[in-house]
Amino acid sequence: MESKGKRNLFPYFYLLPVFIWVFFRFIYPGLEAVALTAYDVRLAGSVVYDFIGFNNWLAAFSDPNFWICFTNTVIFVIADLTLAFGLALVFAVALNTDFKGSGILKAALIIPWAIPNVSNALMWQWIFNGQYGIANAILFKLKMISDYINWLVVPQYALMIVILVQVWKDIPFLTLEY
User: Fold this and answer.
1) Which of 36, 98, 108, 119 has its CA 20 to 30 A from that of 176?
2) What is the pLDDT of residues 103-138, one digit of tens each?
3) Under 8 Å CB-to-CB from 150, ≥6 apart: which residues?
4) Alpha carbon 59 to its chain's center
């Protein structure tokens, strides 16, 4: 019989393959990527690594475009997670109740997941095209806009559209998770 002070470590042996896989799949490449930021790498001809320390980090943090990209990333992540999880919860609750047309809702919910990414991107590019997109046509007919908007050129609109497309693509998977 085992004493109270000692623990049996044998069950952890079964977890060893998973720990090895996680290390080589995620941890090692992540550490390698961070280490690479300390080098200036030239790929022309033979690959040359020049150690420059934190100069890449200092250059990134002093660049105003870095902070614009960082802000857009934070906005994207928060908006995507909030909208996708919220809407997926609503759809999951709706799909768990019987009502007329629930079959149509279930079938429609799978559409974003079933469309290949390239087709998905082309479809949304057509919808929000500044010259002949259907979004402009509908908004113009409803007199909500007086001129067509070039949605994918204006940064604020483009970010909003990217969030919309990602939420649309995430909802089926997240609905099934609930």
Assistant:
1) 119
2) 888 888 888 988 999 999 999 999 999 999 999 999
3) 130
4) 26
DSSP string, 68-84: HHHHHHHHHHHHHHHHH
- Provide φ and ψ at 50, rounded to 5°: -110, 125
Q: Which residue has the tokens 């990217």?
A: 162
Question: d(Cα 129, Cα 136) in Å, to the nearest integer?
Answer: 8
Six-digit token pair at 66?
């870095």
Per-residue confidence (pLDDT) for residue 3, from 0 to 100 = 58
Backbone angles phi, psi at 168, to 5 degrees: -60, -40
Beta strand pairing status for 48-51 and 39-42? antiparallel
What six digits make up the tokens of 106? Answer: 């279930």
Number of Cα atoms under 13 Å in the Cβ half of residue 164: 13
In whole angstroms, what is the distance from residue 57 CA to residue 66 CA? 11
Quick one: tokens of 170? 């995430």
Rg (CA), the chain: 25
Which tokens is 74 given? 């934070």
